[in-house]
Amino acid sequence: ATDLLRLSRSGISEAGVLRLYSLTGQIVLEKIWPVELENIQLTIGQLPSGIYLAELRLGNGASVVEKVRIR
Q1: What is the pLDDT of residue 12?
Q2: DSSP codes, the chain
Q3: Residue 1 has what pLDDT?
Q4: Contact 15, 32 (CB under 8 A)
Q5: Residues 68, 44: Cα–Cα separation, whole Å
Q6: In terms of C-beta density within 10 A (0-12 exposed, 13-18 middle, 19 or more buried), how is residue 55 classed?
Q7: Is the dihedral of CA 49, 40, 54, 34 positive or negative?
Q8: Consecutive sets of 10 residues in the chain, 71 residues long: mean pLDDT of each?
């Protein structure tokens, strides 16, 4: 697997919690995403290759989910 995952959140202007889920629903990584950062890097070298779901949950309860492939 690659060591870093870079994510960008254009158009979202509030802080949130970023969670990376395995396809079985297990949270494998969780990190606060501060409002001042448009881009974030996550260390993922410890995760096996595969498909994951990245969820950014905002303070107002809304969330954005994207599929992520780790190789």
Answers
A1: 81
A2: --SEEEEE-TT--S-EEEEEEETTS-EEEEEEE-TT-SEEEEE-TTSPSEEEEEEEEETTS-EEEEEEEE-
A3: 46
A4: yes
A5: 12
A6: middle
A7: positive
A8: 80 89 96 91 91 93 92 84
Residue listed under structure tokens 């905002």? 58
Task: Please report the pLDDT score of residue 2 as a whole number.
Answer: 60
Longest dimension (CA), the chain: 34
List the structure tokens of 26.
Answer: 């297990």
pLDDT of 65 reads: 93
Res 18: pLDDT: 95
The tokens for 33 are 């995403």
Residue owning tokens 């260390």 = 43
